[in-house]
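Journal club prep — side note

Before the paper discussion, L.F. wants everyone to see what a predicted structure for a comparable chain looks like in token form. Sequence:
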Amino acid sequence: MRPQSRSPKATPLRTARPPPLPPSAYFNNPRTDSQISPSLPYIVSFSQDDEASASSDPVWSQLVSNAQLQAEEEPLLVSFLYSTILNHNSLESALAFHLANRLASSSMISTQVQSLFLEAFSSSPSISSSIRSDILAVASRDPACTSVVDVVLYFKGFHALVTQRVARQLWLSGRENIASYLQSQMSQVFQIDIHPGAKLGAGIMLDHGTGIVIGETAVVGDNCSILHHVTLGGSGKKDVDRHPKIGDGVLIGAGCSVLGNIEVGDNVQIGAGSLVIGGIPKDSVVVGVPAKVIGTIARDEKVDLEDSPAELMRQNVMEICENNQFNI
């Protein structure tokens, strides 16, 4: 038998890959208004309703503007910025989408988590106000923050705060089980464990965030800054009010533990690594294990927010004392 002839293998079609284009090739002329129109493959534009929404919400307007600028500077981020910010018409919509994708699991898809966030935002307007204060707090206090885009997209301390605010709303409305799910996912994804029952004020910064634990009956006042590996823990195992009550403007340094149902007054600074097991008067500086008062903030009149320890973020307690900003 004559062997069957084999047709030669077809040579695969090869196309030359074009050289990388400079960022300017993806966009039109330099931006002169609030709209960007990159050429293919992305188109980002805003309707009149979107522009009206941005103009009535300064934080959202700044976020959109910063996202547009970053998209112009880094084309590789255009798709990401579009899906997380520029494709939305409100801060709430953007956060619900972004955090849902971070907190989803194999058994709880992102659209389900997204609906939980949107439900909480719509049922509790105070959440919207608080998260805007949180964004501005981080942007003003963290020197590593270059824009509000960083806070919203990349800072897990802020992500955990928003998640806890949503979980707390669900908890208060009687949906403890789904609130516990969000707490569990928050702990797994962000390495931050805040019970849905904890009450957190507005203008909070969780700097770095890793290892922060805040218990069920804890209360944190407005405009506080809490660094990584801080525990606001209980004392004992009885189901009672067992966690700390933190005042306004408080700075809690890295690695601190504040234990039991004790009161920490307004504008207190707790040095890194301290163990607090007793109440602290307002305007005090405490350090040590156990923590002791080493100074008080010298004030002739009521403290301004801009002068609070949480806002100043000066963590070297001894340096501050040497500069005579405290009475020893």
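L.F.'s comment for the group: The domain at 198-328 is CATH 2.160.10.10 (UDP N-Acetylglucosamine Acyltransferase; domain 1). Keep this in mind when we get to the figures.
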